[in-house]
Amino acid sequence: MGTVTERVLSTGVKKYRAQVRVKRQGLPNFTESKTFSKRSLAEAWIKKREYELELNPELMISANISKGMTLAAALEKYLNEVEGFGRSKRMGIRFLTHWPIGNVKISDLTRKDFTDHTYLRRKGYPEIGADPIESSTALQDLQYLKVVLTHADLVWGEKVNLFELEQAMKGLRNARVITKSKKRDRLPASNELQLLTNYFYRRWKTSKTSMPLHLIMWLAIYTCRREDELTRLFLNEYDQVHHEWKVFDLKNPNGSAGNHKSFKVTEQAERVIKELMKPDVRDQMLRLDSADPSVLLPLNAKSFASRWREAIKMTGIEDLRFHDLRHEGITRLAEDGLTIPQLQQISLHESWESLRRYVNLKSRRDRLDFVEAMKVAKKLL
């Protein structure tokens, strides 16, 4: 039986996932899928594939049994079939294909394979240029493997012993070889925000860069948005009457595709948005041929993240990430007395537990704001 599922990407482009599933007595369950740009192509592929399987049922046997799928092959197959997760997860899964465990058939994987892999990851693997990693990263590795192997079991009908992986994870947790990541509490100091505002404003005015990072950094603080979310703020989704802005494909543990939500736009954020919408600023951002005029920031998130790291190095600031600006923004809102439900309207956290750390915070006396920072930056130019 074949089905076609329509998906709408954050860009508005439609994709069609065709899936063929066959259950026939005496043969293994067969599932195969492929994504197309047109529904007609997806439907044509289903008819063609079903006809091929009808003429040659042995294809189902070879696809499910004789190949003896290795873990590396399963990882690649998962990446080709499954959509809706972020770049970091995709890169993490693909990276795992290069390790020795990738050569083991998924039906043969034991707790020793998972344990050996984890110890190898922790100490590093020079043969592929992999450095030693922290215990939290090792845990993430095993979580990625669990996702893929569960998918192989439920969707492809592969023989997988998930109990072996679970037992390995239990033992490695007890030995503290894998642990959850520690909560990061780094906040930018006022002098650091001023240094960065000065640096980016000078770059904007003197080098004619297309990235107004002196505005973007404050937008990140006042909207509490992640860097990639900032580049997906479509102008036609901004409700200025109700002060709300819809964000598409928000990060979510269950997958970002289709997770669209609106956040409250604060007065401080609106002040920065007005600066970004000034004709001269828009013109400078839209100089690149690839710039998309339908969004507030017609820029590549990777590019301005790279400029951020460059600025951190040039200003001598230590261990400050762009994502820390989101933490700074939520902290400011909590300092101003917002309740957890009110914080959720802006940060879009789904869990109260994620925001519990912000409750009952005392306001900092020396907190720098956008208007003050820009006054100083303009005087220094």
What does this structure look like?
By secondary structure, this protein is mainly alpha-helical. The chain has three domains: 1-66; 68-182, Orthogonal Bundle (DNA polymerase, domain 1); 190-380, hpI Integrase, Chain A, CATH 1.10.443.10. Helices cover 51% and strands 9% of the residues. It contains 17 helices and six strands. The strands form two sheets. It has a three-stranded antiparallel beta sheet. The longest helix is centred in the middle third of the chain and has 22 residues, at 135-156. The chain starts with a strand and ends with a helix.
What CATH architecture label of the largest domain applies?
A: Orthogonal Bundle
- Helix coverage percent of residues? 40-55%
Which CATH class of the largest domain applies here? Mainly Alpha
Q: Compute the average pLDDT.
A: 87
First and last CA, distance: 67 Å
The computed structural class is mainly alpha
- Which percent band covers the strand fraction? 5-15%
Number of helical elements: 17
- Outline type: globular
Q: Supply Rg.
A: 25 Å
Task: Provide the low-confidence segments as ranges.
Answer: none
Strand tally is: 6
* Number of domains as seen in the coordinates: 3
CATH superfamily of the largest domain: Intergrase catalytic core
Biggest β-sheet description? 3 strands, antiparallel
Q: Within the largest sheet, what's the order of strands?
A: 1-2-3
Helix/strand order: EEEHHHHHHHHHHEEEHHHHHHH
